[in-house]
Amino acid sequence: MSNEKLRVDKYLWAIRVFKTRSQAATACDGGKVKLNGAPVKAAKSVTVGDKYEIKTDARKWVIEVVELLPNRVQYSEAIKYYVDITPEEDKLLQRAASVFHTGKRQSKIGRPTKKERRDLDGFMQEDGEEEL
């Protein structure tokens, strides 16, 4: 196994920053992945000690490459191949923002369920009959 040449997009996919390799390549081409402040292409070779700034939809990452990982592995193994050096204030902002921009409602809040709707309709009809 030759670890000398490993593409940035493949590495970011392998350490689970992106769900798919094509998402990683698109982020590289879109200028969302930077090495020392300069955007990198998806085909750029990764070397140990590189520090990458990565912007994803979910959060901003600053990582340092500790070891090369050519194949995707489970999360508990993948975190051994990089060091997350994201500034603490960026991490706090991301946690707060992620609650509001998920696109999903919080559980038990919002529209009533079918059963709750029937109970409400029954309750409203009972009230109306008592007033007559």
Short key terms for the protein model shown above:
39% helix, Structural Genomics Hypothetical 15.5 Kd Protein In mrcA-pckA Intergenic Region, Chain A, S4_RNA-bd, 132 residues, five-stranded antiparallel beta sheet, 5 strands, alpha+beta
Give a quick precis of the structure:
With 132 residues, the chain is of the alpha+beta class. Helix content is 39%, strand content 14%. 19% of the residues are buried.
Walk me through the structure:
The structure is a single chain. This protein has helices at 8-14, 21-29, 75-78, 88-100, 114-131, and strands spanning 33-35, 38-39, 51-55, 60-65, 82-84. It has five helices and five strands; from the N terminus they run H-H-E-E-E-E-H-E-H-H. It has a single domain (8-131), classed as Structural Genomics Hypothetical 15.5 Kd Protein In mrcA-pckA Intergenic Region, Chain A (Roll). It has a five-stranded antiparallel beta sheet. The chain is elongated. With 132 residues, the chain is an alpha+beta fold. The protein is 39% helix and 14% strand.
Helices and strands, with pairings:
Elements: H1 8-14, H2 21-29, E1 33-35, E2 38-39, E3 51-55, E4 60-65, H3 75-78, E5 82-84, H4 88-100, H5 114-131
Antiparallel strand pairs: 1-2, 1-3, 3-4, 4-5
